[in-house]
Amino acid sequence: MKTIHKLVLKAYLGPMLMTFFIVIFVLMMNFVWRYIDELVGKGLDAMVIIELLCYATVNMITMGLPLAMLLAAIMTMGNLGENYELLAMKSAGMSLPRILKPLIIVVGLISISGFFIINDLVPYCNRKMYSIIYDIRQQKQTLEFQDGLFFTGIENMSIRVEKQDPKTHLLRGILIYDNRNINGNMTTTVADSGYIRLSDNKKFLLVTLYHGETYEQTRNNQWYKKSALRHHTFDRQDGTIPMSGFDFERSDASAFGGSSQTRNITELQHAIDSLDILVNNATTSSYEPLLKQQIFQKDENILARPGDSLYVDRSDYRAMLATDSIPDLGMRDKNSIWKSARNAAKSSRNMFAFDESTAKEALNQLYRSKNEWHRKLAFPVSIMIFFLIGAPLGAIIRKGGLGMPIVVSVIFFVIYYIISISGEKMAREGDWSSLLGMWISSIILAPVAVYLTYKATNDSALLDVDWYVGKYKYYKEKFIARLPRKWQERLNKEKK
User: Fold this and answer.
1) Taking the domains of the chain in order of start, what are their residue ranges?
2) 69, 107 Cβ separation under 8 angstroms
3) Measured between alpha carbons, how far is 469 from 474 in angstroms, rounded to an integer?
4) pTM to 2 decimals?
5) 260 contacts 371 by C-beta, under 8 angstroms
6) Which of 131, 251, 459, 496 is most deeply packed, by most CB within 10 A?
7) Which residues, in sequence order, are CB contacts of 51 under 8 Å at separation 6+?
């Protein structure tokens, strides 16, 4: 028995590792193409890019591991079935659950490890990845000149080069517009040739110009009336300009821990409790002042005060209502009342809109935190479900290799992905509970796994085309036998 279990484990672990790395590689290519524009042209160190890709790889495990489990299970059982090894085991009296027992133990351990990966490792890597992406976005493009075009990568400066030597990096026909002076003075420099490069630490721009002229337009507090223009020539001019943004500066990764994807399940639970209180307080603070202070104010004299022409005492007001003898107001009084009511309505609307936006943002964060909390628990279950779908499917299909298993795996994974995305969207918008939205895919696919396991255990010809053709003919003949004799004769004539 141990020899058979070793055979099954050996047949499974190889395809599992192969399919896992293939899936991760495909997902990583998608990540690279997504951020290729931000990685190229900034002179990033190779270790920075490798570090970013490593953190992104860990983030891809949550999507790649279930698909690898499904594909590896189909390939393993398909290879065993195609080589009649599975048939020999069953002939020896072993049932399918007994054959899969070592694999179920291995997949169970992987599922438990998957929980710790998505709960501890993925949030840490997400914080690191978000910080690196932020630092890359903050870094400016490298100093690269194109012939005849202005380079505007330096703030308040524009540099144009007519021609550059790719070997010596000598620039010819240099034109520089410098607007960095806080007084508004603009300097224009024209030079026959020179060198412009960044220092080794990328914090200074080193400029060396030959045979040129400088024009400086000087402005004072009477610039709209008069301004001065100074001009001088030079044979050689050296300058050092402080620069910022060209060097890669690392940020603290702990500053990017506010997202739900960068928290573990304990931090998410704490955030959920805090957000529940915040949402309740925001909702209460939005409605109670609106009802008590704006709509149903305790002060009946809202529009008029004692001494005003519109002031009505409380007792007189009640008497008017009882006798239906409200005085007829003039046009000016009506206009005053209308303006006061209009201002009160605008004030209440603006106050409620501001409080409502605060409550809505807190509610969105609450939904995201709840979704992420349930995602961490649903991930290990999805790994086991995909294995329980793939193993019986492979035993039924009895086809190894990468042909049929890939097709079937992709179909099931697309179904799972569509259901998961739809459920998550409904939960994120508040239409469904997070429990239903994040577990809907597992709820739908779990009966499929049980049904396939039952069919494979009983050696059902679930994907045998001949079996379906035979069943179709059987039910067709049975249906025709119940038709009237005239219709039966007509169908027989059509067949002939």
Assistant:
1) 2-139+375-457, 150-242, 260-372, 465-495
2) yes
3) 9
4) 0.66
5) yes
6) 131
7) 128, 132
